[in-house]
Amino acid sequence: MDVRTCLIVDDSRIIRKVARRIVEGLGFEVDEAADGAEALSFCAAASPDVILLDWNMPVMDGLTFVRRLRDLPGPMPKVLFCTIETDPSRIAEALEAGADDYVMKPFDGEILQSKLAEIGAVAMA
What we know:
The protein is α/β, with parallel strands linked by helices. The chain is built from five helices and five strands, in the order βαβαβαβαβα. It is globular.
C-alpha cells in the first residue's frame, strides 16, 4: 500500500504537534512547515497528498500559499484549511482560491478524520 503524506502548515508548534499526532494515527507520514513560504518550497520539491493549512501566519499566509500552490506543476494535494476564521465570505474566498475544505480550530481527531474523509483523503472509520 502506498504511504500517504501530509504537510502541516501552522506557525503554532503546539497546533502542529496536535495535528501531527492525529494524522499519524490515520496512517500518514507527516512533515511540518511554520509558514506558507516554507510550505511552498517543500511542495515545489515533493508534493504531499494532503496539506493542513493555517490561515493567519507570518511571512506568507494560508490564502497566498494556496493560490501559489495552484500554480505549481504536478498533482494537486488536497488542502484543508484549519482556521479560526468564521466569516462565510472568508471561507468562500479560501475555497475559491483552491482549498478543498476547512475545519474550525480547535479541532479533535474525530472532526479532522471526518473532514479528511469528506475530501477523499482517508476512508471513513
